[in-house]
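G., before I forget:
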Amino acid sequence: MKPRITVITLGVDDLNRSLAFYRDGLGLPTQGIIGTEFEFGAVAFFDLQPGLKLAIWPCDSISRDAGIGKFRHSPTEITIGHNVATTQEVDAVMAQAGRAGAKIVKPAQATFWGGYAGYFQDPDDHLWEIVE
Amino acid sequence: MKPRITVITLGVDDLNRSLAFYRDGLGLPTQGIIGTEFEFGAVAFFDLQPGLKLAIWPCDSISRDAGIGKFRHSPTEITIGHNVATTQEVDAVMAQAGRAGAKIVKPAQATFWGGYAGYFQDPDDHLWEIVE
């Protein structure tokens, strides 16, 4: 197995709500919802750095496609790290997330390991850490 | 916010078990567990493509660091996509994951959108999709 991840797919409850958050709120580039010609196919992809995409897909579709059960959200399952160059940029991204409707669970502050970071949660409580 | 993710951190129950799975089973490059000088700091990073790392960090540490509660695992929270070039490579990675102790939840097969893919779960039930 090559050390490579090409898509990070977040399970969401409401595709349109999450699309609005990531596209309009955080400004991530996307072609919007595609795949609606397939049952359980509706999905949206966001272009990140070359070779990596973020996707949002309903939890029900993940459950169906993988053939596993349904589960309640678990905010400690994953954190998504977004590293930036300066503390000011951390503050700016946290403020942008707040304006987009994110839940600011930990305002940006000095970290125990010597950095500067804050956490917010997306509409399905997925944790993002903005880190300098 | 720039469209960029730099770290994907998976919440795990047993850091050593997950390290063995990802390092020894899947062969991902890592310096092993670091940060043990900090309470709740123990973590392992795996180098993926340039600019992206995978991390494993106990759910308890995520809960503590973000200041949120504890939650049960939710396998529909995220899927991690690993794209490869051929169906043979999908089969090879699925077989490697099986040997590493992964739970094969959906053997590789044709997908509804015309590709070829399989799902496995890591020791904490995080879903990986291997896709051609």
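Strands of chain B lie at 7-12, 30-34, 43-47, 53-58, 78-83, 103-110, 116-121, 127-131. Chain B is about 25% helix and 35% strand.

More on Monday.
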